[in-house]
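Query form — protein Threonine--tRNA ligase

QUESTION: What is the three-dimensional structure of this chain?
INPUT:
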Amino acid sequence: MIKITFPDGNVREYESGVTGLQIAESISPRLAQDVLACGVNGETRELNRPINEDATINLYKWDDPEGKHAFWHTSSHLMAEAMQELWPGTQFGIGPAIENGFYYDVMPPEGVTIKEEDFPKIEKKMQELQQKKEALVREDISKTDAIKFFDQRGQHYKNELIADLEDGTITTYTQGSFTDLCRGPHLMTTAPIKAIKVTACSSAYWRGDEKRPQMTRVYGITFPKKKMLDEYLQMIEEAKRRDHRKIGKEMELFMFSELVGKGLPMWLPKGTTLRLLLEDFLKKIQKRFGYQQVMTPHIGSKNLYVTSGHYAKYGKDSFQPIHTPEEGEEYMLKPMNCPHHCAIYASKPRSYKDLPLRLAEFGTVYRYEQSGELHGLTRVRGFTQDDAHIFCRPEQVKGEFLRVMDIIMIIFRALNFQNYEAQISLRDRENREKYIGTDENWEKAERAIIEACEEKGLPAKIEYGEAAFYGPKLDFMVKDALGRRWQLGTIQVDYNLPERFQLEYTGTDNQKHRPVMIHRAPFGSMERFVAVLIEHTAGKFPLWLMPDQAVVLPISDKFNDYAQQVRRQLEDLGVRAAVDDRSEKIGRKIRDNEIKHIPYLLIVGEKEVENNTISVRKQGEGDQGSMKVEDFAKKINDLVAEMTKNY
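ANSWER: The structure tokens for Threonine--tRNA ligase are given below.
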């Protein structure tokens, strides 16, 4: 008999060799129907694999990430099997589950190009195969036999993967006529996969290397019920409507130019207003919390990044060094702000009385992303981080964490990000060799993060082994209006850079000590944050953040001068306003400006000129009646003051 411990701490005894499915059946038939995979001592497994020793167990259903992962991983194999039948001779790369669905990288036979018109054909074949309810059979295989097996089938990409694996660790999974090199986990059979949709295809370099062959990456998603797929497809349509690239163009916020360069966004006047409002908002908060603003160059000596370690990490995939006329002199586009801030810290002697020192900068950095990876504002080559670096004593880490968490919470509340979660990333429990810094400092920092979350009442998932080599961290994941998860705020503890730059402060004992460095970026990058904000709000920003809070619409050209007079008056009274003086009918102007999500439309004609008023129309609510310009401005300013009074 073996002892099985459940998540609630209950322990039951079962015969050795019991499976996850049998354990589920022993609890309830309904659970056995719903369970998709199980976790045994933290490892996700198939439900039919025997358990031969005492273990802790988790039973994963569809609502569990591990359950979805097994479901979608199996679906990727089902899609590969379908493509193998449709196009014999297809070579297969990798086919992982991803956050929403799965993909498979394939090299079709010569003369075959997989395109969108082929999606229904792939779906139909997947459905045919699914109806066979094929079992997924796991097999341990030696390295020699694996290479021979895949070589006979012409699967050269699989053999390249096998070359990197250790003998004795290699497994395959077979369903029907398809066998894949795979570690799992999977469903027991393809039976639960009821609703299937192939969603997209694109090009992808083999193993992400631009010098390697381009493969076809086919994406799909599956569900246990058709209703779930229908809801998902509706959500995708809504996501298209909210696409920040589409809304950004409609609202004239930003643009890209091939002539300027790929992945280099340019902020248009309205987008610049939006971004500066966000920056000013954070600057005011930071000032309250004792931060000092600094500014550093967009380039730096290559030696700066060699010292910091960023050249070793980013040098190969970064923009190449800039050579000057002076022999041997090299500069680099700045990939990170932190080395510059370390140089500022080191510019003069520091005492324990100077700490914590909080340096903040909206610093633009540059990283070379592959062309195929670029996407609107979310993946760019030049972006601005709302960076700050806090230099403090070890005993100050917890207090600084609490203050940074306060800042992040203020931002989330102000921008209506109500659904968020936190993850604490700590060292691996066993392998401590890959981390720098003393055990004592690590334990202090890890404890400080955990206690800070407890004090704030913030539920946080702890992940061991996910810490950076230089220190533990706390990441904030936000769910937007469509339920998509985005990582926004991050707080990281760093023992590495103070060591590399030999940073010191004089302690109360008159001895030299090494400060601890905390990296924090509540927004992350301004570009990515604005993209998330656009899609979360569908462009309907809070009134205090709208680039144009109102637009004046003259009924005809003869009222343009009055419209401009109203705009200037509003600007003088602190309201951001524009004028639409195009020679268009008023109905067209109203429709066009509603698309731009401008909160208030101010219509002016003969009656308004005579009475020195404006006719107010509110976005989504229609006519609000006539008002004096001063009264309207007061209303807007009062609304903004009420919205921002706690920030």
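ADDITIONAL NOTE: The longest strand covers residues 195-205.
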